[in-house]
Write a structure and sequence with these properties.
The complex is a heterodimer of chains A (276) and B (201).
Chain A (H helix, E strand, L loop, with lengths): L1 H6 L9 H6 L9 H8 L4 E8 L2 E8 L2 E6 L4 H11 L4 E3 L5 H11 L16 H10 L8 E2 H7 L6 H9 L12 E2 L12 H11 L4 H9 L4 E4 L4 E3 L4 H4 L6 E4 L2 H6 L3 E2 L5 H4 L6
Chain B lengths: L2 H11 L1 H24 L2 H20 L3 H5 L3 H15 L32 H19 L3 H12 L4 H8 L3 H20 L7 H6 L1
The chains are: A alpha/beta (276), B mainly alpha (201).
Amino acid sequence: MTSRTRTAAAPPIDIDLEAALAMLAEPAPAALGPSALIAVGLADAYAELPSPLGSIFVAWNARGVSWVDRAIDREAFEARFAAQIGRPLHRARAVPPWLARAIGARLAGDRRAKVKLDLRGRTEFETAVLTKALEIPRGEVRPYGWIAAEIGRPRAVRAVGTALAHNPVPLVVPCHRVVRSDGTIGQYSLGGPAAKRTVLAAEGLDPIAMEAGARAGIRFLGSDTTHIVCLPTCHNAKRITARHRVPFRSLAAATGAGFRACRDCRPASGGVAVAA
Amino acid sequence: MDPDTALAARLAADLDAAFEPLVAAHRDRLYSIALRLLGDSRDAEEVAQDALVRAHRAMAGYDAERIRALRLRPWLAAIVVNLSRNRRRRRDDLRPPLQLEPLLETGLDPGGPSPAMGPHDRAARRETIRALAAALLSLPPGPRAAVILRHVDGLSVAETAAALDRPEGTVKAQVSRGLARLRLHLSEDPDLGPSRRELTA
């Protein structure tokens, strides 16, 4: 056998180079198909990511983050995704670094950090609500009515609440920073008011003090040196020292006293539907 | 009806709904073409994925008539060949391919060795594939692409010509020149054992 091979002086009969070339076809790696579908937004990948609420699940595709949930386990997350989004879902080993960094920067309060969102399936109104919520700085809250006024639908306060309750990407879109117009904490899709307090506290807000102020009827805070009036959690309001801090139950009372509205938190938008 | 004609009609009717079947039908061959053009499995995976994404993007901009008229096999092959040609390995890869948990599907390897094969045959087959793949990479780009599309992927001369945007006569000449060079190269492969006679004979 060996000697025959060695001595073979290549007689010119054409055997099967062509057939042998066909053996060079290889099955694609298993991830290729799913990755291609994820890359055109027809499927999603998901992985776990740490958050102030513990480990959360994040789903994404090339269009952006599509679903964030605090499910008890993978099966529960997959079931919820199937019911709500319905696209094929594939488990990834980890959230890719570029996305983890962007989400991390967002959770850390960097509002310039761009996180692409896949909000397909949301109505124009819901998209406007979620996009507006992205503007609320870390450590601050705004009333539902503030969002409604800011997007030009001042009477749609309840609809804003509903849209935020159905936020597909909580934490990334900080719906936890939207509270009831009377200053109480309101509902939260990722585990109710307790979870909402946890996230707000992790962001440097004191939810107990905030709710105590609300119970005392304080809706706005002004400074008697600048004569500017803010929503109570506005970063400008936090800088007012105790002896210059002037609480107001209504914006009308503040403007009546000669205060003008803060341009950062725009309290006029939050002054809707306040029963002082 | 040719399955690709039916698939093109489905894509024309609903691109997103029919795209998954297109991926399922073409991913193996697109990967194989890229793998044999480039010689690196990770590059091939990225190129094949990129080709599918570009195909989707292109079709999203076509009207239904144009999609229905697509000859998917050569059209997709052309995208892979072009991407492979422009491929430069990125030194600083910010977006490595997504690592999915193994394995979502474990389909049988259709081109793999049959279970009836003994270990000796399997080793010989592996050696043949290795030697052929190496020989292909030694070919100049023109003949290499022509031989791969014609004989690894199994396109007709006309389809190969369409995919490479070359006249059929050129493709025929490149294929036969490529095969001749492969034989020459294989006859010089020091590691190629018993299968050499069959391939270079």
